[in-house]
Design a protein that fits this description.
- This protein has 241 residues and is mainly α.
- The protein is 71% helix and 5% strand.
- It has nine helices and four strands; from the N terminus they run αααααββαααββα.
- It has a two-stranded antiparallel ribbon with strand order 1-2. Strands 3-4 form a two-stranded antiparallel sheet.
- A hairpin with a 3-residue loop joins strand 1 and strand 2.
- Helix 1 runs parallel beside helix 8 and helix 5 packs antiparallel against helix 6.
- The longest helix has 29 residues.
Amino acid sequence: MDVMNLDYYILGEVTVCILSAILCYNIFATFSPYERSHRLFLYSAVSSFIVSFSDVLTVFCITYYYKFPSSVSYIINFIYFVFLIAVPYFLSCYSYTLTVSKRNATKIGYIIPSVVYLLYILILIINTKTGWIFTINSTDGYIRGPYIAITYIVAVMYIVLSFVYALFTRKYVAKRLLIVFLIYPVIALLIIIVQFIYPKVLLTGVASFSSLLIAYISVQSDMLEFDLGIGLFTEHKLQKH
Protein backbone atom coordinates (compact mmCIF):
# COMPACT_ATOMS: atom_id res chain seq x y z
CA MET A 1 0.00 0.00 0.00
CA ASP A 2 1.49 3.27 -1.18
CA VAL A 3 0.62 6.31 0.93
CA MET A 4 1.57 8.63 -1.94
CA ASN A 5 -1.10 7.12 -4.19
CA LEU A 6 -3.99 7.91 -1.87
CA ASP A 7 -6.81 9.99 -3.38
CA TYR A 8 -7.43 11.73 -0.07
CA TYR A 9 -5.45 14.40 1.78
CA ILE A 10 -4.75 12.87 5.19
CA LEU A 11 -1.92 15.05 6.52
CA GLY A 12 -4.31 17.10 8.63
CA GLU A 13 -5.87 14.00 10.18
CA VAL A 14 -2.49 12.42 10.90
CA THR A 15 -1.35 15.61 12.61
CA VAL A 16 -4.55 15.80 14.64
CA CYS A 17 -4.18 12.17 15.64
CA ILE A 18 -0.76 12.89 17.16
CA LEU A 19 -1.77 16.17 18.78
CA SER A 20 -5.00 14.79 20.22
CA ALA A 21 -3.07 11.87 21.75
CA ILE A 22 -0.75 14.38 23.45
CA LEU A 23 -3.76 16.41 24.58
CA CYS A 24 -5.44 13.30 26.03
CA TYR A 25 -2.29 12.50 28.00
CA ASN A 26 -2.04 16.04 29.39
CA ILE A 27 -5.70 16.08 30.37
CA PHE A 28 -5.58 12.67 32.00
CA ALA A 29 -2.42 13.55 33.95
CA THR A 30 -4.21 16.42 35.72
CA PHE A 31 -7.79 15.21 35.54
CA SER A 32 -10.35 15.34 38.35
CA PRO A 33 -12.90 12.52 37.97
CA TYR A 34 -15.24 14.32 40.35
CA GLU A 35 -15.84 17.28 38.02
CA ARG A 36 -18.40 16.71 35.28
CA SER A 37 -16.79 19.33 33.04
CA HIS A 38 -13.42 17.55 33.29
CA ARG A 39 -14.97 14.20 32.41
CA LEU A 40 -16.83 15.64 29.41
CA PHE A 41 -13.72 17.36 28.10
CA LEU A 42 -11.70 14.15 28.46
CA TYR A 43 -14.40 12.20 26.61
CA SER A 44 -14.27 14.83 23.85
CA ALA A 45 -10.48 14.59 23.55
CA VAL A 46 -10.51 10.77 23.44
CA SER A 47 -13.28 10.86 20.83
CA SER A 48 -11.25 13.34 18.76
CA PHE A 49 -8.30 10.95 18.75
CA ILE A 50 -10.48 8.00 17.73
CA VAL A 51 -12.11 10.05 14.95
CA SER A 52 -8.83 11.17 13.41
CA PHE A 53 -7.20 7.74 13.77
CA SER A 54 -10.17 5.84 12.34
CA ASP A 55 -10.52 8.43 9.56
CA VAL A 56 -6.97 7.68 8.41
CA LEU A 57 -7.70 3.94 8.54
CA THR A 58 -10.88 4.39 6.50
CA VAL A 59 -8.86 6.07 3.73
CA PHE A 60 -6.71 2.97 3.36
CA CYS A 61 -9.79 0.76 3.49
CA ILE A 62 -11.50 2.84 0.80
CA THR A 63 -8.47 3.17 -1.47
CA TYR A 64 -7.38 -0.46 -1.17
CA TYR A 65 -10.82 -1.98 -0.64
CA TYR A 66 -9.84 -5.03 -2.67
CA LYS A 67 -7.17 -5.88 -0.06
CA PHE A 68 -9.39 -5.57 3.01
CA PRO A 69 -12.33 -7.79 3.97
CA SER A 70 -15.56 -5.84 3.61
CA SER A 71 -16.51 -6.64 7.21
CA VAL A 72 -13.28 -5.08 8.55
CA SER A 73 -13.72 -1.94 6.43
CA TYR A 74 -17.34 -1.65 7.57
CA ILE A 75 -16.44 -1.91 11.27
CA ILE A 76 -13.73 0.77 10.94
CA ASN A 77 -16.12 3.10 9.13
CA PHE A 78 -18.83 2.40 11.70
CA ILE A 79 -16.46 3.36 14.54
CA TYR A 80 -15.52 6.52 12.65
CA PHE A 81 -19.14 7.62 12.25
CA VAL A 82 -19.96 6.83 15.89
CA PHE A 83 -17.18 9.01 17.28
CA LEU A 84 -17.55 11.65 14.57
CA ILE A 85 -20.71 12.84 16.34
CA ALA A 86 -19.43 11.97 19.83
CA VAL A 87 -17.06 14.96 19.77
CA PRO A 88 -19.67 17.70 19.18
CA TYR A 89 -22.08 15.82 21.48
CA PHE A 90 -19.67 15.87 24.43
CA LEU A 91 -18.61 19.44 23.66
CA SER A 92 -22.23 20.63 23.66
CA CYS A 93 -22.71 19.00 27.07
CA TYR A 94 -19.44 20.59 28.19
CA SER A 95 -20.68 24.00 27.06
CA TYR A 96 -23.97 23.45 28.88
CA THR A 97 -22.12 22.49 32.06
CA LEU A 98 -20.08 25.68 32.09
CA THR A 99 -22.86 28.04 31.03
CA VAL A 100 -26.53 27.20 31.51
CA SER A 101 -26.18 24.60 34.29
CA LYS A 102 -24.36 27.16 36.41
CA ARG A 103 -27.60 29.13 36.52
CA ASN A 104 -30.15 26.37 36.11
CA ALA A 105 -30.12 22.93 37.71
CA THR A 106 -32.27 21.33 34.98
CA LYS A 107 -30.75 18.42 33.06
CA ILE A 108 -32.64 19.10 29.85
CA GLY A 109 -29.41 20.29 28.25
CA TYR A 110 -28.01 16.78 28.71
CA ILE A 111 -31.16 14.79 27.98
CA ILE A 112 -32.04 16.21 24.56
CA PRO A 113 -28.51 15.91 23.07
CA SER A 114 -28.25 12.39 24.51
CA VAL A 115 -31.55 11.31 22.94
CA VAL A 116 -30.46 12.72 19.58
CA TYR A 117 -27.13 10.90 19.81
CA LEU A 118 -28.85 7.61 20.67
CA LEU A 119 -31.17 8.04 17.67
CA TYR A 120 -28.11 8.70 15.51
CA ILE A 121 -26.48 5.49 16.81
CA LEU A 122 -29.70 3.63 15.98
CA ILE A 123 -29.54 4.95 12.41
CA LEU A 124 -25.95 3.69 12.16
CA ILE A 125 -26.98 0.27 13.46
CA ILE A 126 -29.79 -0.14 10.94
CA ASN A 127 -27.46 1.22 8.26
CA THR A 128 -26.18 -2.34 7.91
CA LYS A 129 -29.52 -3.08 6.24
CA THR A 130 -30.51 0.26 4.73
CA GLY A 131 -27.20 1.71 3.53
CA TRP A 132 -28.49 5.20 4.36
CA ILE A 133 -25.12 6.49 5.53
CA PHE A 134 -22.65 4.29 3.66
CA THR A 135 -22.17 0.85 2.18
CA ILE A 136 -19.07 -1.22 1.49
CA ASN A 137 -18.72 -4.14 -0.88
CA SER A 138 -15.87 -6.02 -2.49
CA THR A 139 -16.80 -4.79 -5.98
CA ASP A 140 -17.21 -1.03 -5.63
CA GLY A 141 -15.61 -0.44 -2.24
CA TYR A 142 -17.00 2.48 -0.22
CA ILE A 143 -20.24 4.11 -1.39
CA ARG A 144 -21.72 7.19 0.28
CA GLY A 145 -25.34 6.64 1.27
CA PRO A 146 -28.22 8.88 0.12
CA TYR A 147 -28.68 10.28 3.64
CA ILE A 148 -25.07 10.77 4.69
CA ALA A 149 -25.95 14.44 5.21
CA ILE A 150 -27.57 13.28 8.47
CA THR A 151 -24.10 13.22 10.04
CA TYR A 152 -23.48 16.85 9.04
CA ILE A 153 -26.93 17.93 10.22
CA VAL A 154 -26.51 16.33 13.66
CA ALA A 155 -22.98 17.76 14.05
CA VAL A 156 -24.19 21.25 13.11
CA MET A 157 -27.09 20.91 15.56
CA TYR A 158 -24.68 20.27 18.43
CA ILE A 159 -22.46 23.16 17.32
CA VAL A 160 -25.44 25.51 17.20
CA LEU A 161 -26.50 24.31 20.66
CA SER A 162 -23.12 25.30 22.09
CA PHE A 163 -23.46 28.71 20.48
CA VAL A 164 -27.01 29.17 21.82
CA TYR A 165 -25.98 28.16 25.36
CA ALA A 166 -23.32 30.87 25.38
CA LEU A 167 -25.58 33.45 23.75
CA PHE A 168 -28.43 33.05 26.24
CA THR A 169 -26.14 33.15 29.27
CA ARG A 170 -23.94 36.00 28.08
CA LYS A 171 -25.04 38.21 31.02
CA TYR A 172 -23.98 35.67 33.61
CA VAL A 173 -20.87 34.09 32.08
CA ALA A 174 -17.36 35.52 32.27
CA LYS A 175 -16.42 37.41 29.10
CA ARG A 176 -13.44 35.15 28.41
CA LEU A 177 -15.64 32.05 28.64
CA LEU A 178 -18.34 33.65 26.52
CA ILE A 179 -15.94 34.52 23.70
CA VAL A 180 -14.62 30.94 23.58
CA PHE A 181 -18.06 29.37 23.39
CA LEU A 182 -19.15 31.84 20.73
CA ILE A 183 -16.07 31.49 18.54
CA TYR A 184 -15.26 27.77 18.52
CA PRO A 185 -18.67 26.69 17.14
CA VAL A 186 -18.26 29.11 14.24
CA ILE A 187 -14.76 27.83 13.43
CA ALA A 188 -15.90 24.19 13.63
CA LEU A 189 -18.89 24.97 11.40
CA LEU A 190 -16.71 26.61 8.74
CA ILE A 191 -14.36 23.61 8.67
CA ILE A 192 -17.32 21.20 8.37
CA ILE A 193 -18.65 23.20 5.40
CA VAL A 194 -15.27 22.92 3.67
CA GLN A 195 -15.25 19.16 4.38
CA PHE A 196 -18.74 18.82 2.89
CA ILE A 197 -17.75 20.71 -0.28
CA TYR A 198 -14.40 18.91 -0.66
CA PRO A 199 -14.93 15.36 0.68
CA LYS A 200 -11.44 14.23 -0.35
CA VAL A 201 -9.83 16.80 1.95
CA LEU A 202 -10.19 15.13 5.35
CA LEU A 203 -10.98 17.76 7.96
CA THR A 204 -13.39 16.11 10.39
CA GLY A 205 -10.65 15.50 12.93
CA VAL A 206 -9.32 19.02 12.35
CA ALA A 207 -12.78 20.47 13.06
CA SER A 208 -13.15 18.60 16.34
CA PHE A 209 -9.57 19.21 17.47
CA SER A 210 -9.64 22.94 16.68
CA SER A 211 -12.66 23.30 18.97
CA LEU A 212 -10.95 21.26 21.68
CA LEU A 213 -7.71 23.21 21.41
CA ILE A 214 -9.45 26.57 21.72
CA ALA A 215 -11.44 25.39 24.73
CA TYR A 216 -8.38 23.79 26.32
CA ILE A 217 -6.12 26.82 26.00
CA SER A 218 -8.76 29.36 27.01
CA VAL A 219 -10.86 27.48 29.57
CA GLN A 220 -9.98 23.93 30.49
CA SER A 221 -6.27 24.43 31.27
CA ASP A 222 -7.24 26.87 34.03
CA MET A 223 -9.62 24.31 35.52
CA LEU A 224 -7.17 21.43 35.87
CA GLU A 225 -6.88 21.24 39.61
CA PHE A 226 -6.12 17.62 40.38
CA ASP A 227 -2.80 15.82 40.06
CA LEU A 228 -3.22 12.07 39.63
CA GLY A 229 0.52 11.60 40.02
CA ILE A 230 0.41 12.48 43.72
CA GLY A 231 -3.32 12.05 44.28
CA LEU A 232 -3.75 15.58 45.65
CA PHE A 233 -5.37 18.82 44.60
CA THR A 234 -3.08 21.39 43.05
CA GLU A 235 -2.05 24.60 44.79
CA HIS A 236 -4.57 26.55 42.73
CA LYS A 237 -7.39 24.39 44.05
CA LEU A 238 -6.19 24.57 47.64
CA GLN A 239 -5.95 28.35 47.52
CA LYS A 240 -9.69 28.50 46.96
CA HIS A 241 -10.20 27.04 50.40
